[in-house]
Amino acid sequence: MEKHLRIELIIERMAHKRACRVLEAGGMTGYTVVPAMAGYGNSKRWSRDTDLSASGDMVVIISIGDEAKVRPVLDQIGDLLGAHIGVVTVTEVEVLRPGRF
Amino acid sequence: MEKHLRIELIIERMAHKRACRVLEAGGMTGYTVVPAMAGYGNSKRWSRDTDLSASGDMVVIISIGDEAKVRPVLDQIGDLLGAHIGVVTVTEVEVLRPGRF
Amino acid sequence: MEKHLRIELIIERMAHKRACRVLEAGGMTGYTVVPAMAGYGNSKRWSRDTDLSASGDMVVIISIGDEAKVRPVLDQIGDLLGAHIGVVTVTEVEVLRPGRF
Amino acid sequence: MDVALSTLLSPIILFFALGMAAALLRSQMSVPEAIAKGMAIYLMMAIGLKGGVEMSKNPLTTEVLLVLLAGIVLSFLIPLIAFIFLRLTTKLDQVNAAATAAHYGSISIVTFVAATEAVRLSGFDSGGHLVAVAALMETPAIITALFLASRGGGGREKPVAGSEQGELVREVFLNASIVVLVGALVIGWIAGEEGTETVRPFFVDLFQGVLCLFLLDMGLSAGRGLRQGWRQLSVMTVGFGLYMPLVSACIAAAFAYALGMPVGDAALLITLTASASYIAVPAAMRLALPEAKPSIYLTLSLGVTFPFNVTIGIPIYIYLALLINGQG
Amino acid sequence: MDVALSTLLSPIILFFALGMAAALLRSQMSVPEAIAKGMAIYLMMAIGLKGGVEMSKNPLTTEVLLVLLAGIVLSFLIPLIAFIFLRLTTKLDQVNAAATAAHYGSISIVTFVAATEAVRLSGFDSGGHLVAVAALMETPAIITALFLASRGGGGREKPVAGSEQGELVREVFLNASIVVLVGALVIGWIAGEEGTETVRPFFVDLFQGVLCLFLLDMGLSAGRGLRQGWRQLSVMTVGFGLYMPLVSACIAAAFAYALGMPVGDAALLITLTASASYIAVPAAMRLALPEAKPSIYLTLSLGVTFPFNVTIGIPIYIYLALLINGQG
Amino acid sequence: MDVALSTLLSPIILFFALGMAAALLRSQMSVPEAIAKGMAIYLMMAIGLKGGVEMSKNPLTTEVLLVLLAGIVLSFLIPLIAFIFLRLTTKLDQVNAAATAAHYGSISIVTFVAATEAVRLSGFDSGGHLVAVAALMETPAIITALFLASRGGGGREKPVAGSEQGELVREVFLNASIVVLVGALVIGWIAGEEGTETVRPFFVDLFQGVLCLFLLDMGLSAGRGLRQGWRQLSVMTVGFGLYMPLVSACIAAAFAYALGMPVGDAALLITLTASASYIAVPAAMRLALPEAKPSIYLTLSLGVTFPFNVTIGIPIYIYLALLINGQG
Ligand SMILES: Nc1ncnc2c1ncn2[C@@H]1O[C@H](COP(=O)(O)O)[C@@H](O)[C@H]1O
Ligand SMILES: Nc1ncnc2c1ncn2[C@@H]1O[C@H](COP(=O)(O)O)[C@@H](O)[C@H]1O
Ligand SMILES: Nc1ncnc2c1ncn2[C@@H]1O[C@H](COP(=O)(O)O)[C@@H](O)[C@H]1O
Ligand code: NA
Ligand code: NA
Ligand code: NA
Known about the structure:
The complex is a heterohexamer, with 3 copies of chain A and 3 copies of chain D. Chain A is an alpha+beta fold. Chain A has one domain: Alpha-Beta Plaits (2-Layer Sandwich). Helix content of chain A is 24%, strand content 41%. Chain A is built from 2 helices and 6 strands. Chain A has helices spanning 16-25, 67-80; strands at 4-12, 30-35, 38-41, 44-47, 58-66, 87-95. The model of chain A has no long low-confidence stretch (mean pLDDT 90). Chain D is an all-alpha fold. Chain D has a single domain, classed as Na+/H+ antiporter like fold (Up-down Bundle), CATH 1.20.1530. Chain D is built from 16 helices and no strands. In chain D, helix 2 runs parallel beside helix 12, helix 5 (94-105) packs antiparallel against helix 8 and helix 13 (235-258) packs parallel to helix 16. The radius of gyration of chain D is 19 Å and the shape is globular. The model of chain D has no long low-confidence stretch (mean pLDDT 92). Chains in contact: A-B, A-C, A-F, B-C, B-D, C-E, D-E, D-F, E-F. Chain C binds chain E through residues 12, 14-15, 17-22, 25, 44-45, 47-56, 76-77, 79-80, 82-85, and chain E through 30-31, 33, 36-37, 40, 156, 160-164, 167, 217-218, 220-221, 224-225, 228, 278-283, 285-287, 290-291, 294-295, 298, 302. Strand 6 of chain A pairs antiparallel with strand 6 of chain C, so a sheet runs across the interface. The complex binds adenosine monophosphate (3 copies) and sodium ion (3 copies). One sodium ion binds at residues 78, 104-107, 248, 273, 275-276 of chain F.
């Protein structure tokens, strides 16, 4: 059976469409974007409530796919992250209905 | 030691109560529902902002339990997904306070 | 190569700053807080819409770090959870740009 | 025609156009979902209260009851006709045709408001009970559609896992718009003109302004829906979104004629029948017919029929109302 | 009694009933959390400003200061009495009894507003400084409750990991309702009638209408809370939610009598004392006493005591105020 | 000076101070993001409509067009000057200096509103076309800043993965504030005084009150930003946030003098030039210059320059406008 991987990408809300385009272009069959409300990194905190411009907001993008598709996409994401913040983890997962990925 | 599994189920917001009932009926001790703000699948995008009726919104349901409980619940979820969209992943996790699951 | 771990902590919104302080004090390089909208546990349901005071709201805190840092932090979190609700899972993950953790 | 023009250039329509233009030009601007939902509740409270206060001024007559009944019958009936048209002229399958038909049997409350305004500007009165008609017309269409979808195996034999007895009934009959519309109507009726005096500044004076902001958001939604969904709509489907309101309008006009309704009331009943839902019904369809595609029914209803109705449709419906009153 | 009836049939109470009914019938409708929170802030700004403007009209007298002091004493005192009743008549343990007692010592600003309106309808005046009393009564109750909970080892010896010096103090003394209420009061005081002229349309004219929408949401919350939580409430606990306000009212009436307060002011002080918190205190309890169960204290305060107060309670409290002024 | 004082004690400024104080005292209170965003859209719609209605009363003259042009030139020019000052007097690198400079070239609409009010209180008129100037001044500064950042390799050679042709242009020229401001201006222009009559209660009467709530939130944001970000700001950087508005003001005064602008219009053009963006530009910078640090440019613009402008700045700018009209 194929191995499935779950990409989790934490990135600036303002830049998330770029990441989405990378995922789509890379052939991932889907992704889901979840808004975050606060965070910390690099000894700075952010929170939705501290910033009227919402320019500091982050989102979490979840995308599941089979390994063959995920690997090349990860390289592309690495390229995107040259310019943007971005925390990327990849987890091995079991899926229901593997046909859909 | 028992193996614990984390179910992550991405499903339509309108239908999420059905999934919640399946989890409860299956004896899971808890779950948490997180709202998503956008997504892509099947070459369609959705976003909270595109749809006044919010009928396209998705949520992410996270539920952690021990393997003995999770396995039978997954079958029930598979049944639910005959009718609804739904991306289900299962991950092996370590838990703190295993007694509570 | 170092092993990286992803902590996922589900905790009351009111108490999440305590958890955040534990993570910061423990030397984690970052975390991201995601708001939940509903949940179930201990045979009680909660939902943002049932509670004007929002005192029942939960959040999901995600924090990624290398194993050497994560282990001691987990003990501290266990201490915090003596007083608060809290579901904690730890998953082994692969990361991009391991240098940043 | 003056009315038609002043409708077209009213801030409300202009803000809808602004939203649509911004979306088509791919601006990223958006109105927060919570604000849009809050405004929808406000608008329905305001409409309900107003209707209730109006109704409190006159006793309930048989004529009024007959109009309520007519609304229910029309809401049951229109989806049948819409379904036949869809199956004959488009390639939509049974489930998608049924789901789309449900939208056209139900109503759009913003279209109703725009028509109320246009009727007033044309110098006619309308009764508060038309708000009750609007509330009653929301749901029967959904029942017809479920019946159409299930004929010949379109439905499921056994219930979906996790679905609950009565869940759909509650969703359909106790959705936000019905609860708020009917509830506010009854409250307005009980409290009357005097009792609602203190809430007038909020519910009456602000109404038009809030509507502007709401329509800006509707324009954004409609524009984005069109931009992303138009490829899924065939020419015939788009055509349906334009002629179906007229078909509905003619049928409603016949009812209004039979009941001898005055111009204002007739124009509103016709508009309700011609309008299509884009909030309550799409949500119900996600539970009831999850296999149907929102990109079809939503784009059609919000992106095609709504703009048609508020610009070209309403003047036609007022004209129809004049016609059946022998003043055309 | 006329006042009682016209209160019962005011749109505000009717919308609360509508929300409650919708929730009990298990409608899925909801008001977005952001809107509810926004309205809560608006209401407190409006109340604070109004009180401040009133206060700016008269100099601060010793009588006013004594009323402020009475409010603080009552807020410290009531939880003690509530705690004793709870421990004697219900099976709640120490922590849950203390947490619940805190709610009854603190206040409900919506109940206060409803009472202000009823007092006005009954033909009495009330002073702006009662808003200051309301603000001052929010927190002392929490301190008493923490003391009660910690007696005999109910509390923890060492602080929770991650908790911070002063964190609880800030949460308790600088929560949103206190910041906004006190802040707006001071601003109203500084700016005066004239300086707040331009913001009247927003903060004064809209007030009643926004309250309707807010109470619709409170009704939904209360109804859902009741439906999910009533099984956790014993008959004795529900009873407490009904008689405790009356007990508090009598104690407050004694204070008002001792201070020689006029009818309107006395009625409001009694109402504040009789009312129970359902926003600020539950939030503080989550930090201070996380072991206590929200399903008990919230259901009791919002689902039982609040509806009791705004329907039956307020007329009784006005009557009490008349009584101590020899007009009963 | 009376004007200065009455500005300082206006509820708007007092609510800003309240928010700031609450944040500095580390209160946890917050205004929901959706409400803040909704209010921002409302304010821009109201300002745009008002400007459009004003403009509809007079024909477009060459003078007006020249003022529009002056606004554009100033917005292109100011970032250059700001950049030079930043590079010479602070340790900010090229990218951070360019990003900060962009904020000072663009404008703050709330500062503009506060100035409009102060101008009115001082007994002067101002033209509706200044709203159009505000809209036009939003973006040129961003273009200058991108040019400054990219000089000498500050920019990237190849586009970021996933970035799309025209994405930045859309973000910059079609962001919410421009769409709503320009859109509402055009709608106000088309509909005129009469056509916008029905929306006056919402967009005109409520304006000052909504502004209070919005400024409470701005105060909270500014205070939190300051508390968390001040360590990243050197004395020289903070100094820049205080003298740069004055530098901009003098340059704008020269333009206003050259164009012979009347006092009210001149004061507003000067204020616009002296004000710094804290909503539109920070968002654009995240896309265009992700390497720049928001904790620098946001803290400076919202935490330092905005409070300076609305308290001390505006009276100075009005004085400057009097001066160039020979009335100083
Ligand atoms: N180790 C981490 N785990 C989870 N989220 C992180 C981590 N590091 C950074 N983040 C998120 O990314 C944002 C920016 O990080 P930074 O670039 O380090 O300031 C933070 O505010 C967090 O929301
Ligand atoms: N592979 C995936 N990974 C994450 N989310 C997905 C994936 N596929 C679908 N989704 C989510 O499910 C929704 C519906 O998917 P679909 O039924 O493929 O249109 C999408 O809009 C996403 O929010
Ligand atoms: N097994 C679980 N999986 C995911 N979330 C959980 C689980 N158990 C509890 N939760 C979350 O924690 C909250 C409180 O749980 P409890 O203390 O069991 O009532 C629930 O309402 C859920 O949001
Ligand atoms: Na219809
Ligand atoms: Na009390
Ligand atoms: Na500027």
